[in-house]
């Protein structure tokens, strides 16, 4: 009898053919190389995205003369210290390509083998750092941000669907890695600029991240034999172990091992069953990114030693610290009612919006604002990891990969809407005299 280790990616034993009975040994824990790889994949996938948001305030202050950084503000005529362009412009450049990828991916992503997808993620991530670091114009910098968005969006769709080939626990490691990208990305950019490196050189240092992504996927991860790495999946010629069945974007399997594609009506029924998780997750991300890219820049303490740009970087770092802690908390705390998190995040957004409107936040003190931002990050990370954990546990095996791929549009949709709303809000406040 053949035994297939779903975590080691071992090949079929010699001499065993398509009529061999397939069994999988029970496993309580995934292989250490796979959990390490998925943590690093999460870290590398979100790193460029996070850094671009952390650098948003600097990107929008870049002038055509690359040797001079000019503080372009309306402080002389407005009650707020504002860039002429909202940081939400960077957010939209960082999220709209991702939104397009996630909306369309369930219908074509299964046609692209995994190795090609990951290779494109690596190239676009490296390109984003190079373009932004050498750019001397805002429009070119935003193009670099678009590259980061393509890398992150394609990577999230790819790696979340990839988890269906492995032990279910790898979802929590992936999520923790994405949280790690938040804190390490924001902290590394803050730290490098604080010690004297220019934003350009700080971004060049981060070219090590695409290299780490390459190593994590191609050399550290143990690929199961059924994973379509360089060729498109075809109908299997022999039975596969349950953990090795390719569930690419809406594929199901008949009892003989053949593959048939889910119809549109069946896909729609699956999506409808996911709405109880997708809608609350969208609300959570709408509220928190409205805060991050619409209000952070307007929460300014003028009479302290930190400059406005430094304050903005600290806000981003603390937010990402909260995200990292909560995305890594799945083994300690699980949450089923995601709507509670969305309600709390909306309360955060409303409170800070009122605070910005009436300019009473500085009277609360910087530590209080830091705590609110940390709490915001905790809510966002908890919503993300628990949403995908619940979907992974509740989905049928033959629907799991499609469900994870379809649901990952939720956070991106919320972020996109928040970015579109944050720009007129920014313009309104910065126009007040």
List the SSEs and their pairings:
Elements: E1 2-3, E2 22-23, H1 32-54, H2 56-59, H3 88-108, H4 114-134, H5 138-162, H6 170-194, H7 199-205, H8 208-220, E3 251-253, E4 259-261, H9 264-295, H10 308-327, H11 338-358, H12 361-364, H13 366-394, H14 400-407, H15 409-430
Parallel strand pairs: 1-2
Antiparallel strand pairs: 3-4
> What is the tally of beta strands?
4
Strands of the largest sheet, in order across it?
1-2
CATH class: Mainly Alpha
CATH topology: Growth Hormone, Chain: A
General shape: globular
Low-confidence stretches: 1-27, 63-76, 235-260
User: In percent, how much strand structure appears in the residues?
Assistant: under 5%
Helical amount among residues, as a percent range?
A: 55-70%
**Total individual domains:** 1
Report the CATH architecture.
Up-down Bundle
Structure description:
The chain has 433 residues and is an all-alpha fold. It has a single domain (30-71, 79-231, 261-430), classed as Growth Hormone, Chain: A (Up-down Bundle). The chain has helices spanning 32-54, 56-59, 88-108, 114-134, 138-162, 170-194, 199-205, 208-220, 264-295, 308-327, 338-358, 361-364, 366-394, 400-407, 409-430, and strands at 2-3, 22-23, 251-253, 259-261. The protein has a two-stranded parallel ribbon with strand order 1-2. It has a two-stranded antiparallel sheet with strand order 3-4.
What are the main properties of this structure?
Growth Hormone, Chain: A, transport, 433 residues, globular, disordered N terminus, mainly alpha, two-stranded antiparallel ribbon, two-stranded parallel ribbon, 64% helix
């Amino acid at each position: 009898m053949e035994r297939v280790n779903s975590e080691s990616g071992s090949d079929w034993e010699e001499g065993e053919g398509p009529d061999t009975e397939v069994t999988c040994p029970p496993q309580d824990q995934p292989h250490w190389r796979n959990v390490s790889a998925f943590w690093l994949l999460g870290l590398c996938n979100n790193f460029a995205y996070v850094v671009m948001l952390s650098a948003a305030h600097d990107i929008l202050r870049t002038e055509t003369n690359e040797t001079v950084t000019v503080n372009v503000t309306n402080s002389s005529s407005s009650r707020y210290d504002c860039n002429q362009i909202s940081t939400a412009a960077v957010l939209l450049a960082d999220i709209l390509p991702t939104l397009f990828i996630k909306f369309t991916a369930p219908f074509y992503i299964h046609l692209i083998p995994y190795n090609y997808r990951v290779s494109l993620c690596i190239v676009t991530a490296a390109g984003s750092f190079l373009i932004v670091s050498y750019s001397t114009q805002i429009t070119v910098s935003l193009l670099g941000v678009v590259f980061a968005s393509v890398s992150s969006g394609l990577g999230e769709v790819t790696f979340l669907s990839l988890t269906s080939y492995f032990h279910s626990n790898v979802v929590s490691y992936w999520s923790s890695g994405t949280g790690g990208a938040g804190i390490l990305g924001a902290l590394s950019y803050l730290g490098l600029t604080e010690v004297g490196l220019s934003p350009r050189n700080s971004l060049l240092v981060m070219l090590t991240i695409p290299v780490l992504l390459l190593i994590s996927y191609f050399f550290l991860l143990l690929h199961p034999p059924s994973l379509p790495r360089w060729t498109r999946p075809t109908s299997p010629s022999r039975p596969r172990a349950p953990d090795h069945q390719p569930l690419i974007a809406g594929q199901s399997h008949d009892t003989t091992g053949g593959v048939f594609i889910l119809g549109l009506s069946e896909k729609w029924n699956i999506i409808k069953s996911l709405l109880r998780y997708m809608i609350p997750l969208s609300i959570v991300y709408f509220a928190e990114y409205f805060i991050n890219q619409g209000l952070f820049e307007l929460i300014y303490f003028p009479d302290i030693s930190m400059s406005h740009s430094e304050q903005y970087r600290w806000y981003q770092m603390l937010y990402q610290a909260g995200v990292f802690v909560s995305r890594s908390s799945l083994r300690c705390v699980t949450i089923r009612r995601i709507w509670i998190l969305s309600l709390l995040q909306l309360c955060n957004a409303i409170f800070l919006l009122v605070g910005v409107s009436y300019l009473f936040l500085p009277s609360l003190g910087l530590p209080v604002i830091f705590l609110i931002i940390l709490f915001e990050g905790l809510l966002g990370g908890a919503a993300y990891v628990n949403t995908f954990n619940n979907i992974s546990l509740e989905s049928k095996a033959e629907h799991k990969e499609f469900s994870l791929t379809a649901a990952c549009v939720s956070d991106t949709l919320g972020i996109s809407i928040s970015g579109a709303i944050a720009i007129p809000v920014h313009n309104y406040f910065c126009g007040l005299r």
